[in-house]
Prior knowledge:
Number of strands: 6
Shape: elongated
Structural class: mainly alpha
Strand order of the largest sheet: 1-6-5
Distance between the termini: 36 Å
Number of helices: 6
Strand content: 5-15%
Amino acid sequence: MGVLDWPGLGFARIDEMMAGLPAPWRLVFWAMAAAALSMAIYRFASPQRRIAQAQIEAQAARQALDRYDGEFADAWPLIRQVLRTALHRIGLVLPGVLLAMLPILAMLVWLSTSYGYRFPDTDDTVDVAAIPSSTGVHAELSVMPHQATQPQKRRLLLRDQTGAIAAAIPLRQPVPVVEKRRWWHTLIGNPAGYLPDDSVIDRVDIALPAQEMLQMGPAWLRGWEPLFFAVMLSASLAIKRLWRIA
């Protein structure tokens, strides 16, 4: 597991407690929770009074530049003042923004696995591609027909040129890419596992079916991302106004 994967254990436990709700409503809950948590962290981690004062100074600098009606060369002091106040406000805001992003990043990592894809039905055919294809290795997804509800019974089989099984990797989660362990997996791990380090292929792409949160609209609108970000953005703006966050 990567560093950003650990909060997902808590998210998964809470999500299990809401198992009686449809997936779209659970996703709405997570979007609102992400908005509330991130805005609360930003509010208490940032100097709100100094940010409010910086906003007043920045507005005054812009108004002074707007009122100026002289030569462009003589406007440089006003332009520098506008830039100085803007950069000062960014410097006050940025640390709180970065800190508030951490829980959202952790939640996005967990959501991409829990709400991104699903294992195929037993009768469905799934395209599996080993990369690079020039190695002659053939990859396939093996699902035990009578144990389709058990993720540990799903395996990624790698066959060599003779058709013999070179490796069998249990798929614990529906993840469309399985690859060798890389340095970035210390931050974000692959819950589906990894290819052996000595494997002749670098990755395997699995065309898993995507989960659909909405039953209408184009395919790109039915996934978890549009619904989650739309609700989170709306909730964040409402909380910002309600709490009068600068």
